[in-house]
Each structure stands twice: as structure tokens, then as C-alpha cells.
């Protein structure tokens, strides 16, 4: 149920679209400041003079920003030649290391009665579940000549209830998404194309609900009717408030399509009942400011994951279908304070809450008939990231997922609800010997006494840590956790004696909703204090020293990294910013990047090599 965490985060962010299209073009260089620090109030001035003065200030800011940018580019070009030889060496080394960890990617498999569908190498296949026959190609990117791009790839795939049609979205480098509808049969054929479809769900075998993306906004739900005479579309829902974004989802048991209309701080969900396709969508609960919620269904009960209630954290509630409003909501499970809800999986008879508390991952498992009895399963202490498999069956009593960390590629595990046992499954990745690396969890006291978590990785045995290079990571924004996924390229640094430190400052979501609220809006400086405290604590406990310390930050994390350079310039020696929102401090430049960085693997290797060359040169290693 990845949409649970994804949607809840997007609601808090106020964005409801794919990450790669949320990053503003040129976001690294673009000034987002509202006014100059010395600007006056124009309350009593005539409107024309006020507008003139605002345009003047805007022009000044643009000129100053452009001046700084040109100066930074000129300086970088004058110094970049000294990185070139080292950059070439790192590129070869990175390619070698990354190739060691190459594995077959995990393909999501859609199981439908006798057939299963999956995507691989630019093709969507169909095969019998007994596996006796060669998979049949349903749709190939090569046959869609109108795409005219080599960057196209399949994304969302949905099969109609009785396997009459298949719909798939295709994205391209231009950030445009289209939906292709294929009629299944002995010879599958494309029968319709939806040019701007954002997401979609099948209502019946002949009706496809979908949303369109217009100027990065989605406000309508339409229904495509596929008939022998042709295809027609009609609108079934319209959102009139421009602050809200509309998305579609399906409950895990397949009973309902949910129409989710979300703003930054409120939600409204409508249900379309697949058992009664002739009926109009029905509202669950009208939007209430400050209340966000998502809806699942099981045995004629709606299960609602929401922030509604006395505490600041999420809770699971339920209500009968006949009376779905807030007055009927009853608490099933509450997330404790300072605990991060990572995900939720609802099965036919059980629910699994995936949590993080005090630097460790846990599963809370309970029966929907007796939710007060909760089994707590602590996952291996080395694990930092958990990801549910996409093809979990509603009727199953097994939970399949993957664990990873910065020093461990994904490992597949299976938890049996019935036996209460955890099993390691085969995985295609090269594994690392966890004993070769040490993970340490630290707590840094911030300015107000709050203990800020730090996760530290280095190779063992490890001597003279105070002289080793340190790469600190920070994000601290939007209630999103700092990325601690496995990245093969970081093994190059670890093998060369580097320390990797992840500073989980406030503003992120590591310790729940309250952790985010503690450093946002007018409290943003709290994250800067936390970061400074983390670096000071690392150095004082013997991890590296300021002259051997570098700081890296992605996207909004650049605000904290850049601010640290102003308030505590002696804390670090070098800084690498990727797709930063920082307007005037550019310590490293990533051309052609988006929110995730370069899209091609070769370009990514090139950029990482350039960053490593920069760090080694500046830290005099």
C-alpha cells in the first residue's frame, strides 16, 4: 500500500504529482525570496507606485541573482580543470563497483485469475500462472512510433476485471504522460489513447475512470466508455477549489474506486462502488481543515487512516459503509508519539503497521477482529529502509518486503502472519558482509536540548577516526525522511575509509508528524541548529574533524546546508548541493538535472565521479 505514505506526504507538501515534475526548472539558481531584506511597507502608497516599486525590486533581485550566478560559474570553470584526471579515475571505479551490484529489477506482477501481467525491457507481457508457456507480448514501446522519444517507459498498468482490456501509462523525458488502452485477445490491439491521463482505474470491463493533468493540476475525474460503436468520455467529478488536487486509487480488495481530493491540510474522499456501477460516487466525509485521511475497505467496513483525533500522530479508524462520516469513526489503532508510520498493509483478516521508532524498524501486526492484541516484530538492527512488494494479495497471510541500508543492498524477506515467523528469501543482488561495516546510532543535543538522531556508517576495524574524511547528509524538509537507501557508489567512499553520517534533523519526518512541525515556516531555523549540533557532536565524539568534513544535500536540504555555511562556516570544508533551492550559494553545479539528478545511468555515474573528484581535491585527500 505504497500510496498510503506517498499520498500522506504529498498532502503535507501541498503537491500531488510525480516527483520529477515538481522540481522547478532551474531550481538550483532561481531566487525564491519574496522581498529584499531592506524593503519597506507600501500600505499607504498609491497602487501604481507600489507596483512600480515591486517591479523595481524584482528586477534588482533578478540582476543580483544573475550576477552571483555568473560569478559562481566563472569561478567554477577556472577551477574545474584540476578535477578532470581524478574525475576520470572515479568514473572507472564507479562503473566497476556499480556493475558488481547490478541485479534484475523487481518487476511488479499483476495476477488476474489464470493470467499474470508484468513489464520488462519496454514490453508488457501476459503469461499463464502455471508458467508452462512463453510469455506473450501485449504491448511494446517499439510499436508506438508516435512517441518519438527513446526516454519513454511504462509506469502504471491496470487490467479490467474480466481481462477484456489493459490500460498503461507511458511517461517520457518531456514529463508528459499518456494512457494507452489495449483490447486483449488472441491478438492484442491498441484501441484508444488518452493524451494527458494522470492516473486511472477500471470501474467495469468497459469503463475506465481517469484524471487529466493540466498545468500540473488535476481537478476532474472522467469516465471512458468503450463500446462497439466507439469510445466516449464523460465527467463524473469536478473539484472547484484550485487548492485541491484529485487522484484515483482502488481499495485493496477491489470493491471501491476512491476519488481523493487533497490540499495541503485537508482531504475529501468519494467512493465509486464497483458492485453498483450505475450509482454515482458517494462522499465519505466532507473536508475539514486540518484533517487528512485515506480510505480502505474490508468486510463492509471502511478503514480510515487519518490524523484526526487527540494526538498529533496518525491513527487507524473504521466506520460502516452505511454511515461513513466522521461521527461514526471508531479508533482501531493509534501510532505512538515520536513514532514514524512508514506504511500500512491491510489484508483480509489482519493489518500490518510498518513503523520506525528509536532508529529501528518494527512491524505491528493485529487481527481486525481483535485489534487490541498487537504483535510487535523488530526487524534486523542493520536495516534502515523497508519497502513492501507491489503484488501483495488481499487474501494472503504472508507479507513480502525488502530491507536495505547504505551498506546493504535490498534483501527480500517474508513474514508469515499465521506462523509469526520471518524468513529471508533469495535476492539477485550481491550481498555485503554486514560485519565488515559498523552502524552506530548517536543522539546530538540541539540548542533547546532536543536529542537529534544521527546514523553513522564506516568500515571495521576502524582506527584514528578523527583523521578520517566524513560525508554528512541532511534534508530536514516537508516531513520526508532523509534518504538512506543503498547506493552502490557510496561503497567507493566506505572502502576508502570514509565515514558516512546521516543527520535526521527536525523538519523531516523521522520521528513522526511532530518532528516535522518543529521546524517549518517560522521555525525553520531549528533545523539549522540541529545540523550544527550534529556536526559538533560527531567531531567531539571522535568522528573526523572540520577540515576533513564535507556536507551534501539534495533539493530543499540545500537551504539548511547553505544556511550552515553562513552561521557556522568552520564546521565543514566542502559542500555538494544537488538541485538546490538555494538562490545564491552554489558550491557545486549539476547541469541538466531534475529532482532526482540525471536520468540516465551513464550521466549519473559521470556526475557522482565529478562530485567525488571535487570532494577529494577540496579535502586534500
Automatic annotation (TrEMBL):
Belongs to the peptidase S9A family. This is Prolyl endopeptidase. Residues 486-577 form the Peptidase S9 prolyl oligopeptidase catalytic domain. Keywords: Hydrolase, Protease, Serine protease. Residues 66-423 form the Peptidase S9A N-terminal domain. GO terms for molecular function: serine-type endopeptidase activity. It comes from Chiloscyllium punctatum. InterPro entries: AB_hydrolase_fold, Pept_S9A_N, Peptidase_S9_cat, Peptidase_S9A, Serine_Peptidase_S9A. GO terms for biological process: proteolysis. GO terms for cellular component: cytoskeleton; Golgi apparatus. Serine peptidase whose precise substrate specificity remains unclear. Does not cleave peptides after a arginine or lysine residue. Regulates trans-Golgi network morphology and sorting by regulating the membrane binding of the AP-1 complex. May play a role in the regulation of synaptic vesicle exocytosis. Its EC number is 3.4.21.-. The keyword RNA-binding does not apply.
